[in-house]
């Protein structure tokens, strides 16, 4: 074709939760380029190396283009009719013989709101169970639990725009320039403009090097550090007494607890020197417009919810949330739509909009609309699904758009759980490790082939529009889920994604004003958005908090030890995470030119440890935990502290999650990816 036939499709990036607006330029059936939209509300003309360049996966020869069905122990191509027939028959058989709770589904934080809405509806209606969860369980579930308890709603308090006017940014447990690069660049700009920057991170990240203060605590010490900061804010009078009296509870209880957190003790618990703690308290405590931004370094711990709550304490003490000068508390969501997957009710205890399944009025409203009763008992969380499979209580799993064998912790345990199931369905775009052990594989679609919406990290609904058709016989995931409903004899309704969001909005007061039509006409909308003329609430809690009593709640939570601290046998602390070029399990980015930039995994190791182990740059190192062993070449760097090492899980030949443990957050069951005890040896 010539230039005149080129098309430009405006959509939202499918990688991280920042939610950059992208223009996808296509000619015929191929992508010419992806460019950041100059008027994108979050990115304003910027994008990172993932969103901008890592789109080639979409036409990779590895794409699944036909359904696969296991026959005599091999996955073989099948027609849609054959595959759907097996799925419908097996799920119905297991439901009828073992009960609806013998089936569990993991929904996809990589997929649209409309698809997540449909999958939870499928499980609750066609199967009759609340056994549906999504990967926020293993990343930001502590954010939802912690922010609801502190402030009332399960999302960040302020929009991205507020980062530009903050005069102090406290960035905790987030390697923002690598994992959320467009927000990272914005924070760097704020720092260069003169905003004070405090970084809480065990690693000396790019942002930590730039920071006014770097609080470099040991992994697992967040609660001690935040309690230490809270104590200093109180001791030094850096608190908003008027705000506390009028709008918050729990200050006396907190004050009592904090008697145990003088700077010297905090230093013992965390390794953070008292002078650094004092400098951080002074920076955040004296700022006029302080902001907190945090990531998985806070949530992915056995006390992750306590981490969120004790961090939120700092904003409450300063009156820095729900006030004109308060730049709030913002969780940086990892996957593009992990906020939306949760918002849509792909969770075992809540329906869309966090409406509880154990509330009879809520159930009645959904049952009336769906024409079938909604199960009352909350379902299983992801880690519980695996335990239940091993115990024979879960017999079938439906895994939508997640490679759980690569990304969930303690992969050996996950593999055993899938093996124990009678029937596993994987709805996928690549032959992932999980797809390879499934009984039926249903080929779905990538974000570049979808119509729908995502909710990005600051509760912003944005449109997703298809630039391409799914390849071969693949369907959009929306159509696959509808077809699975049909195979089970249930019409899920929702003839298209716009209708699905309309149905969800009708049943969910906080989304009632949101529709595709409005998003197309007006652009992005923040929830809560309660009426069609409601502009949406970018900044929350201006008049009251959304807790039952309308007040913010301080949390008096002690520091407690991590799940698996290093010891004599396993003396190193392994931290797992992400790097700039690759995204999570690497399924997409490894199939793009980004692979040339970072072709393989390496273990970050401090020079002193490298010397002690006799390991040079590039030498292979055996990394062994109580559960498994992997080998990776060393990268000797002081980005990690002595006694700490770092790996990502982006490469299948270094399956980091063979090492990670089944230790989980006591409140939400979020795994402790950020601390695994390991030993090291030159291979
Ligand atoms: Fe996509 Fe995130 Fe990069 Fe933006 S910052 S282009 S949303 S990966």
TrEMBL record:
<dbReference type="GO" id="GO:0022904">
    <property type="term" value="P:respiratory electron transport chain"/>
</dbReference>
<keyword id="KW-0560">Oxidoreductase</keyword>
<keyword id="KW-0004">4Fe-4S</keyword>
<comment type="similarity">
    <text>In the C-terminal section; belongs to the prokaryotic molybdopterin-containing oxidoreductase family.</text>
</comment>
<protein>
    <submittedName>
        <fullName>Formate dehydrogenase major subunit</fullName>
        <ecNumber>1.17.1.9</ecNumber>
    </submittedName>
</protein>
<keyword id="KW-0479">Metal-binding</keyword>
<dbReference type="GO" id="GO:0003954">
    <property type="term" value="F:NADH dehydrogenase activity"/>
</dbReference>
<dbReference type="GO" id="GO:0046872">
    <property type="term" value="F:metal ion binding"/>
</dbReference>
<dbReference type="GO" id="GO:0008863">
    <property type="term" value="F:formate dehydrogenase (NAD+) activity"/>
</dbReference>
<dbReference type="GO" id="GO:0015942">
    <property type="term" value="P:formate metabolic process"/>
</dbReference>
<keyword id="KW-0411">Iron-sulfur</keyword>
<dbReference type="GO" id="GO:0016020">
    <property type="term" value="C:membrane"/>
</dbReference>
<dbReference type="GO" id="GO:0043546">
    <property type="term" value="F:molybdopterin cofactor binding"/>
</dbReference>
<keyword id="KW-0408">Iron</keyword>
<keyword id="KW-0677">Repeat</keyword>
<feature type="domain" description="4Fe-4S Mo/W bis-MGD-type">
    <location>
        <begin position="6"/>
        <end position="62"/>
    </location>
</feature>
<dbReference type="GO" id="GO:0051539">
    <property type="term" value="F:4 iron, 4 sulfur cluster binding"/>
</dbReference>
């Amino acid at each position: 074709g010539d230039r005149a036939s080129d098309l430009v499709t405006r959509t939202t990036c499918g990688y991280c939760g920042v939610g950059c607006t992208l223009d996808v330029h296509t000619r015929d059936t191929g992508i010419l380029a992806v460019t950041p939209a100059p008027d994108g509300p979050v990115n304003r003309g910027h994008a990172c190396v993932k969103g901008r360049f890592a789109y080639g996966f979409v036409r990779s020869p590895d794409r699944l283009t036909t359904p696969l069905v296991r026959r005599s122990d091999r996955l073989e191509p099948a027609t849609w009719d054959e595959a759907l027939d097996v799925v419908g028959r097996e799920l119905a058989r297991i439901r009828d013989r073992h009960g609806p709770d013998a089936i569990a589904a993991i929904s996809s934080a990589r997929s649209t709101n409309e698809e997540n809405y449909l999958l939870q509806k499928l499980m609750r209606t066609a199967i009759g169970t609340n056994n549906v969860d999504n990967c926020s369980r293993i990343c930001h579930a502590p954010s939802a639990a912690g922010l609801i308890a502190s402030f009332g709603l399960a999302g960040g308090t302020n929009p991205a725009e507020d980062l530009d006017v903050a005069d102090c940014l406290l960035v905790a447990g987030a390697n923002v320039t690598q994992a959320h690069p467009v927000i990272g660049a914005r924070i760097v700009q704020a720092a260069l403009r003169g905003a004070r920057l405090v970084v809480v991170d065990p690693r000396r990240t790019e942002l930590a090097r730039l920071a006014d203060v770097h609080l470099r605590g040991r992994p697992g010490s967040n609660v001690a550090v935040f309690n230490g900061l809270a104590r200093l804010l109180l001791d030094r009078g850096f608190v908003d007494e008027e705000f506390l009296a009028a709008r918050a509870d729990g200050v006396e209880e907190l004050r009592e607890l904090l008697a145990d957190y003088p700077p010297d003790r905090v230093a013992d618990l965390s390794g953070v020197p008292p002078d650094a703690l004092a400098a951080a308290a002074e920076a955040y405590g004296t700022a006029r417009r302080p902001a907190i931004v945090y990531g998985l370094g806070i949530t992915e711990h056995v006390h992750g919810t306590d981490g969120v709550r004790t961090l939120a304490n700092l904003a409450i003490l300063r009156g820095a949330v729900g006030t004109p000068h308060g730049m709030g508390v913002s969780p940086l969501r990892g996957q593009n739509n992990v906020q939306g997957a949760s918002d849509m009710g792909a969770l075992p205890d809540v329906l869309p909009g966090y409406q509880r399944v154990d509330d009879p009025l809520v159930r009645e409203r959904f049952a009336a609309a769906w024409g079938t009763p909604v199960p009352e008992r909350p379902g299983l969380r992801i880690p519980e699904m695996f335990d239940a499979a091993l115990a024979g209580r879960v017999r079938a799993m439906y895994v939508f758009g997640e490679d759980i064998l690569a990304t969930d912790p303690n992969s050996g345990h996950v593999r055993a759980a899938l093996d124990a199931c009678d029937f596993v369905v994987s709805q996928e775009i690549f032959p992932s490790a999980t797809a390879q052990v499934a009984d039926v594989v249903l080929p779905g679609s990538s974000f570049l082939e979808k119509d729908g919406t995502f909710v990005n990290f600051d509760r912003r609904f944005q449109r997703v529009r298809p630039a391409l058709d799914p390849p071969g016989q693949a369907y959009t995931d929306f159509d696959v889920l509808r077809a699975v409903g049909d195979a089970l004899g249930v019409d899920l309704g929702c003839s298209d994604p716009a209708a699905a969001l309309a149905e969800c909005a009708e049943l969910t007061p906080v989304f009632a004003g949101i529709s595709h039509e409005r998003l197309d006409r007006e652009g992005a909308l923040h929830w809560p958005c309660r009426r069609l003329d409601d502009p949406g609430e970018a900044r929350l809690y201006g008049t009251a908090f959304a807790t039952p009593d309308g007040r913010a709640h301080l949390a008096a939570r002690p520091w407690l030890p991590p799940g698996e601290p290093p010891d004599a046998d396993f003396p190193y602390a392994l931290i797992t995470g992400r790097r700039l070029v690759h995204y999570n399990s690497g399924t997409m980015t490894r199939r793009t030119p980004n692979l040339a930039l970072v072709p393989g995994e390496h273990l970050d190791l401090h020079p002193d440890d490298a010397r002690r182990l006799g390991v040079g740059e590039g030498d292979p190192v055996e990394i062994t935990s109580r559960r498994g062993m992997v080998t990776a070449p060393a990268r000797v760097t002081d980005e990690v502290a002595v006694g700490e090492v770092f790996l990502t899980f982006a490469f299948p030949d270094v399956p980091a999650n063979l090492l990670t443990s089944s230790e989980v957050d006591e409140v939400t069951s979020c795994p402790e990816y950020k601390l695994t005890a390991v030993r090291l040896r030159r291979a």
